[in-house]
Amino acid sequence: MNNIFVYCELTEEKLIADVSLELLSKGRKLANELKVKLEAVIIGSDLKDAESMVFPFGVDIVHLADDSRLFPYTTLPHTALVLDIFNREKPEIALFGATSIGRDLAPRIASALRCGLTADCTSLEIGDHFENKTQTEYKNLLYQIRPAFGGNIIATIINPETRPQMATVREGVMKKEVSDDKYKGKVKKVDVAAVLKDSDFVVEILERHMEASKINIKNSQVIIAGGYGVGSRENFQLLYDLAEVLGAQVGASRAAVDAGFSEHERQIGQTGVTVRPKLYIACGISGAVQHRAGMDQSAQIISINTDPNAPINNIADYAIIGSITDVIPKMIKYYKANSK
Amino acid sequence: MSFRIIVLAKQVPDTRNVGKDAMKADGTVNRAALPAIFNPEDLNALELALRIKDQRKDCEVIVLTMGPFRAAEIIREAMYRGADRGYLITDRKFAGSDTLATSYAISLAVKKLEPYHLVISGRQAIDGDTAQVGPQTAEKLSIPQITYAEEIPEVTDKHIVVRRRLERGIELVKSSLPVAVTVHSSAPACRQRVAKLLMKYKHARTVTELQNETKDYTELYNQRPYLQIDEWTVDDLNADVSMLGLSGSPTKVKKIENVVFAHKDSKVISASDEDINSLMKELIDSHVIG
After folding, report:
1. B147: which chain A residues are within 8 Å (Cβ-Cβ)?
2. Do residue A12 and residue A41 come from a single domain?
3. What is the DSSP string of B98-145?
4. What residues in A contact B139, CB-CB < 8 Å?
5. Can you give the pLDDT at residue B187?
6. A258 and A169 share a domain?
7. Same-domain pairing of A76 and A13
8. Average pLDDT of A22-37?
């Protein structure tokens, strides 16, 4: 009762996904603050030893549902199993990755439990709330903090009455931190056959083509990111040229991806990946808060923009006022001539 | 029995053009202050529905939207592009609904349109980006869901095959009907208005809109009943008011902060050779690059 639950996703290699380990790390901290337990839900097939992957993150109890029909993920069986666990265990807080899976699963669960869910949180905190209308004091609520409305505001959302308090969080937003290598929790096995019905299998996967994330900009030390201001797919090539010279990766803002300048896998920001490189060069990016949410932890930021008033310039260490077609070739030229 | 597709669409404030008066004191959106557009991924959903209609003579495409009176604009827009008719769910009692209360209202409206085969909508709306209403509506209807669709290669009376666009690949799935599908922006763009349909539906109005017309439409509407866009209120849906609006919404907005960019000590430099070269020198010397 009243514990914190994290739904753990499996990768193609049947490892626990990074986003889930990040959520467990955050969940451990929240659990310490609330003095409750941290519990993990792992649903899949051939889950030999899956629990040992999460115990170092401070998990007290692992709920394992192991059945050949449970991998790859499909909505209805996973929904039924999570509901079965939640109905028995009555979580206080339930966290999901804001991924293809988490954003498919969490709303279905929230609807069935009639509880509140906040998508794509960039921060989670514990705090109190006083409701003026009913003169009611609420202690230790989960503050679910996210940019909203085109990034023009930051909203703090609470669910005073309903439990669990549910939230999804993007990969890379929370830090992955092992709390204790030797930590050992308990395992509870779910009786899968008793929970699932034939009607949970009306959606059938015919084919899958998964890539073990080909483009991975998350771990790159230097990122050259382009926005709508880059202007065209052709101009984006300049960013690749600079990236190749510097050994960097190319990222993009949502506007650039929407305009077709770059692939979705490269999107940085609230609805893309979150990055923390040593150097972030923002090319033709105005700097909407959703984009900023994905990169403002970068150690050093350089902006290249023709607009001296672009908001990105305010968080940049260096703001170069100029066009990328002018500036980038100069950077490449100097680097080639002067690097060892 | 015809093959009935219900397209869920939303009129959204164009979040790219937000002014100062965009938010009300209670943290909800002041829609009146913003330009309103057809939610982009809902247009992708409409296109996938119309492609099924292109293949099947017995197919009817119904647009369902929830919002203020002016949201009827997107129903007309959908009719100009090929939808057969539409319904506007509108009532002050819906105001302030979060995704749970919204999906409750939408699911009641969908049930009024039974028997249906397919409920299709955009993955998410640009004013919230939550992607929750599709799956939550599916749950309330007790039907399966297929999210992030980009193509529907096969439809029969009994099943549907959908190609899904996932973060790291694609998946081809088959589902029984009825099913709820949400559509990803990688699906084909929506076709443009058809001139013939624009002529046919340009006088389509809701009851509320007709009351504000100076011209008398009575005779025209007797001859062409298809011009009538029905409005559904809380009473029409037999909805439980406690499950709607702010009272039916478990999520509350505690606090809204306007975004103020924290000023760092930014050095502004020009694109001249000297400035770029000295910056690059500094980066190399400090081992940030190289």
Report:
1. 75, 100, 103-104
2. yes
3. -HHHHHHHHHHHHHHT-S-SEEEEES--TTT----HHHHHHHHHT--E
4. 79, 107-108, 111-112
5. 94
6. no
7. yes
8. 97
Least confident of A86-100, A147-161, A225-239, B271-285: A147-161
Q: Looking at chain A, which residue has its C-alpha nearest residue B133?
A: A107
Is A83 touching B (CB cutoff 8 A)?
A: no
Query: Which residues in chain A are contacts of B130 at CB distance < 8 A?
Result: 107, 119-120
Work out the minimum CA distance from A316 to partner chain B, whole angstroms: 6
> Chain B contact for A128, CB < 8 A?
no
Q: What is the DSSP string of A75-87?
A: HHHHHHHHHHHHH
pTM of the model: 0.82
Local structure of residue B96 (DSSP, 8 states): T
A31 plus A100 within the same structural domain: yes
User: At B95, is the secondary structure helix, strand, or coil?
Assistant: coil
pLDDT band at residue B33 under the 50/70/90 scheme: confident
For helices B40-55 and B72-81, give the axis angle rounded to 10 degrees: 40
Cross-chain residue pair A222–B288, CB shorter than 8 Å:
yes
What ipTM was estimated for this complex?
Answer: 0.88
Q: How far apart are CA B61 and CA B52, in angstroms?
A: 9
Cβ contact, residue pair B270, A322, below 8 Å: yes
A302 falls within a domain: yes
| Shared-domain flag, residues A29 and A108 | yes
Q: Give kind and range of the element (H or E) at residue B232.
A: strand B228-232
Instruction: Name the pLDDT band for B135 (thresholds 50, 70, 90).
Output: very high
Q: Which residue of A111, A159, A289, A321 is the best one to mutate when testing the B interface, meaning the one whose CB has the most B CBs within 10 A?
A: A111
Both A231 and A195 in one domain: the answer is no
Q: How many domains does chain A have?
A: 2
Residue B73 Cα, gap to closest chain A Cα (Å): 22
Supply the range of the domain harboring residue A289. Answer: 222-338
pLDDT tens-digit readout, A182-224: 999 999 999 999 999 999 999 999 999 987 656 678 878 899 9
In a domain, A211, yes or no: no
Contact state of A313 with B266 under an 8 Å Cβ cutoff: yes
| pLDDT tops 60 at residue A144 | yes
3-class DSSP state of A179: coil
**Given CB atoms, is A212 within the 8 Å cutoff of chain B?**
yes
The verdict on A192 and A265 lying in the same domain is no
B261/A314 Cβ within 8 A:
yes
Q: Do A107 and B266 touch (CB under 8 A)?
A: no
pLDDT digits (tens, 9 = 90+) for B140-196: 999 999 999 999 999 999 999 999 999 888 999 999 999 999 999 989 999 999 999
Residues A156 and A290 in one domain: no
How far, in Å, CA of A149 to CA of A290, rounded? 10
Domain annotation for chain B: domains and CATH numbers: 3-243 (3.40.50.620)
